[in-house]
Design goal:
This protein is an alpha/beta fold. The protein is built from 8 helices and 10 strands. It has helices at 12-22, 42-45, 77-84, 112-121, 130-139, 170-173, 187-195, 224-234; strands at 2-7, 27-33, 68-71, 92-95, 108-109, 124-126, 148-155, 178-179, 198-205, 212-217. The strands form 2 sheets. Strands 2-1-3-4-6-5 form a 6-stranded parallel sheet, covered by helices on one side. Strands 8-9-7-10 form a 4-stranded mixed sheet, with helices on one face. Helix 4 (112-121) links the parallel strand 5 and strand 6. Helix 5 (130-139) packs parallel to helix 7 (187-195).
Length: 235
């Protein structure tokens, strides 16, 4: 069994991660850490897991007791975590924040469609961003065939995290669409670094909870059949 620990267990990302892990036949969750929810039943926060687990949030954690550690805290907190904790030898780390997506400190950018072989052998993995994943999957087969793309993509409200804000709570988001961070979204950094393309990106907030839809257009000097074959071969 692979023993797993989770830091920052109360957010949406951690909730989805826990759902996957408790149904994995070769995984044992040793701890789910949350300072604000310590002692509470996990289902009190992630109510979609009622009847699936008896785990409780913990106030402490032992990094030496796990094989794999998931970091699910807010952006910027992963670096702070390693400033305050020593990484045990042999521990594998998967960071779901954006802190190490630049592959600093020995992390590997974890998009398997891009660099599957590097992921196999790494011990520190940086999970790709949500918009970045959707957009790069559309762009990867065209690397080397075009140098630019235009993207309009819409994301659900859970992508903004669990804490309600002026632009994420239901009464504002319902029946509403809005543009934000036009041409400046932080995921452009990882998209450009990995594909080498110049991407003009219009992100939009959608009036739904989960998911992303991305409309991607780019210049291509071949036929529709040739484009189809590029994508078929890549995937």
């Amino acid at each position: 069994m692979v023993k797993v620990g989770i830091i920052g267990g109360a957010g949406y990302t951690a909730g989805e991660l826990i759902r996957l892990l408790i149904n994995h036949p070769k995984v044992e969750i040793v701890f789910v850490h949350s300072t604000s929810n310590a002692g509470n039943h996990i289902c009190d926060v992630h109510d979609g897991l009622w009847g699936e687990t008896d785990l409780h949030f913990s106030a402490d954690y032992d990094l030496n007791a796990v094989d794999v550690l998931f970091l699910c805290s807010a952006h910027g907190m992963s670096r702070k975590f390693w400033e305050e904790n020593a990484m045990p030898k042999g521990l594998k780390v998967i960071d779901l924040a954006q802190d190490y997506r630049d592959e600093s400190d020995g992390y590997v950018y974890g998009l398997p469609e891009l660099q599957r072989e590097k992921i196999y052998g790494c011990t520190k993995l940086a999970n790709p961003g949500c918009f970045a994943t959707a957009i790069q999957l559309a762009l990867l087969p065209m690397m080397g065939r075009t140098t630019e793309a235009s993207v309009t993509a819409i994301t659900g409200s859970t992508g903004a995290g669990q804490k309600p804000t002026a632009t994420t709570h239901f009464s504002w988001r319902n029946d509403n669409m809005s543009v934000y961070k036009a041409f400046t979204h932080q995921h452009l950094l990882e998209i450009g670094r990995n594909t080498g393309m110049k991407v003009e990106f219009i992100p939009m907030r959608g009036d739904f909870s989960r998911g992303i839809i991305a409309a991607v257009t780019m210049p291509f000097d071949g036929t529709a059949e040739e484009a189809y074959e590029l994508y078929r071969q890549y995937y």
